[in-house]
Amino acid sequence: MNKKVLIISTSPRKNGNSETLADAFLKGAIDGGNTAEKISLYDKTIGFCKGCLACQKTKRCVIHDDADMIAQKMLTADVLVFATPIYYYEMSGQMKTMLDRANPLFPADYAFRDIYFLSTAAEDEEGVDGRAISGLEGWIECFPKAHLAGTVFAGGVAGVGEIDGHSALTKAYEMGKAV
Predict the structure, then answer these.
(1) CATH class of the domain defined by 4-177
(2) DSSP-derived secondary structure letter, 87
């Protein structure tokens, strides 16, 4: 079955390691016969949630910036993929802000079921991504029809391009192909 896959790359760096990991998943998803799109947040205007909760009635955010458009794309995707660098053992601020701004999806008839998490970090110890995964799982908990379908972590990569040749790229590609 052809699935609509939306990949959100949350790195503040253009062509950063987590974005390269997202590109591997994207290629796999397309090679697997799916429709896939990647959105990078590094050049988007995304304000903080105001907590007004108007979106719970209107199913749209009162802030008309790029996050509103991205949330509408999230609504209709079958598969969501979040890619982030790990900062201080957590997801990037850009990713957290985007998750907060996706609040209009809570009362909506969202299509997504499978959610994937891709992350990179300078640290290479096991569990470096644990807090970030937990944060995403908290968001997913608010969407009972969705679940965390898989994760890929690439440790030991700090500078742009250090991920080249990392085994996580193959894992991300294969995961994307299998959606």
Answers:
(1) alpha beta
(2) B
Place of tokens 């990991």: 21
Distance separating alpha carbons of residues 69 and 92, to the nearest angstrom: 20
User: Domains of the chain: which residue ranges?
Assistant: 4-177
C-alpha span between 123 and 139 (Å, rounded): 25
Tokens of 4: 């609509």
In 34-163 the beta strands, taken as DSSP E runs, fall at 35-40, 79-85, 114-121, 147-155
CA of residue 160 relative to chain centroid, distance = 19
Whether residue 116 contacts residue 149, with contact meaning beta carbons closer than 8 Å, is answered with: yes
Q: Tell me if 118 sits within 8 A of 150, measured CB to CB.
A: no
Amino acid at 91: M
pLDDT digits (tens, 9 = 90+) for 77-136: 999 999 999 999 999 999 999 999 999 999 999 999 999 999 999 999 999 999 999 999
Task: Record the pTM.
Answer: 0.97
Which residue, among 78, 81, 119, 111, has the nearest Cα to 98 in the 3D structure?
Answer: 81
Instruction: Return left, alpha or beta for 177; rule: phi > 0 is left, psi -120 to 50 is alpha, else beta.
Output: alpha
Q: Which residues of 132-143 are buried (b: 16+ CB within 10 A; e: fewer)?
A: bbebbeebbeeb
